[in-house]
Write a structure and sequence with these properties.
Layout (H helix, E strand, L loop, with lengths): L1 H31 L12 H5 L3 E7 L2 E3 L3 E10 L3 E4 L10 E12 L5 E11 L3 E5 L3 E6 L2 E6 L3 E6 L4 H4 L18 H26 L6 H4 L11 H15 L2 H4 L1 H19 L9 H10 L4 H18 L7 H19 L7 H6 L1
Parallel strand pairs: 2-10
Antiparallel strand pairs: 1-3, 3-6, 4-8, 5-6, 7-10, 8-9
Helix pairs in contact: 6-8, 6-11, 8-10, 8-11, 9-10, 10-11
Length: about 350
């Protein structure tokens, strides 16, 4: 009985001493391995996964209320890493994202840099802070996320610090809603004077540039009974058709256009000149170098100028003036195409 009791006491002593020895052995092993052998080891997940270096900045840092500004988010990363932003960034009630763009570039040391430009609108006044923006990345099939720094932004009112002040304003004097002004009277007078000046200038210009057919155009000039060539006979027939068709009474501008076309065609065929599509300026140039006599050339140039006033100058000719110019065209055709009259026989013999 006594032997059993001694055995139990010895066993209890052994069990009590064993944990202390085990702890001493652990402490001894830690001491034998150096100061850092037993210290805890912390592994940075960013170093393990190769997380990008991200930052954020606002431009401008001071903005008016409800005006747009840009939050630039930058991420610098190495090859084999993919970075992105969430489709919707939670910026709180003070900021609202309108749209975003992104750009990529490469640094001189071979790293990639991606920038996102987020257009934001601030809806609150004061010294605000754009919360950190989360940037997700994937490397080696593992995903992670990092956050940018918070960005301070100062939001002011459209009228500056007056809007931000909460102090009541002083009493202001009453403002008159209406007052006597002569502005509209002066403006109306100026408009009336301008209209009168334009009307007088137009009347003077029309009076100054009104074509004056010569006296022999106004009279009924009878055609000389001479034998004319084919171009002249055709031109006279076309002019007669204009006179008898009543075109001068219906549309004198068209009638004048037709008269000029008749004269252009006649001169081209009479002198074998390419005048079918010639402009008025080209016709004048041809007249200056043509073989027409001085009187006929001058009369023809005046006739063409008078017709141009009706065609392009806005002058409205009367029916009588149209018939006078038509008679002048007939006379010019006859004067250009008719051969000179032979002198009397007595004068030839005397010569």
């Amino acid at each position: 009985m006594r032997a059993r009791l001694v055995t139990l006491v010895l066993l209890a002593g052994v069990l009590a001493v064993a944990p202390a020895r085990a702890q001493t052995a652990v402490d001894a092993g830690a001491g034998g391995g150096g100061a850092d052998a037993g210290a805890p080891v912390f592994i940075d997940p960013e170093d393990l996964l190769g997380a990008p270096v991200v930052s954020a900045a606002a431009t401008p840092s001071e903005v008016e209320l409800a005006r747009r500004f840009v939050l630039v988010v930058s991420a610098e990363y190495e090859d084999g890493v993919t970075v992105n932003l969430p489709s919707r960034v939670d910026l709180g009630p003070a900021f609202e994202e309108q749209r975003r763009t992104s750009s990529d570039q490469r640094t001189s040391d071979g790293k990639h840099v991606r920038q996102w430009q987020l257009e934001l609108i601030a809806w609150e006044l004061g010294e605000l802070t754009v919360p950190p923006v989360q940037v997700t990345f994937i490397r080696g099939g593992k995903a992670g996320a990092v956050q940018t720094n918070p960005v301070p932004v100062r939001v002011v009112g459209a009228l500056g610090d007056i809007v931000e002040s909460t102090e009541p304003r002083d009493l202001a004097p009453p403002v008159a809603l209406t007052r006597e002004s002569w502005l509209w009277v002066w403006l109306a007078s100026a408009a009336v004077g301008l209209v009168v000046a334009v009307a007088v200038a137009w009347w003077l210009a029309r009076r100054r540039r009104r074509p004056r057919p010569s006296a022999r155009y106004m009279a009924a000039v009878p055609l000389r009974r001479v034998r004319l060539g084919g171009p002249a006979e055709e031109a006279l027939a076309r002019l007669e058709a204009i006179d008898t068709s009543g075109m001068l009474a219906r549309d004198r501008k068209v009638a004048y256009t037709e008269m000029v076309d008749v004269m252009r065609s006649f001169l081209g065929r009479q002198f074998d000149a390419p005048l079918d599509d010639a402009t008025t300026g080209e016709l004048r140039t041809w007249l200056a170098g043509s073989g027409l006599g001085g009187a006929s050339r001058l009369e023809l140039s005046r006739w063409v100028d008078d017709c141009d006033l009706v065609k392009f100058g806005g002058f409205t000719a009367t029916v009588e003036e149209g018939r006078a110019h038509l008679a002048g065209a007939r006379d010019l055709v006859v004067a250009i195409a008719a051969p000179p009259a032979a002198p009397p026989t007595s004068e030839v013999a005397r010569a």
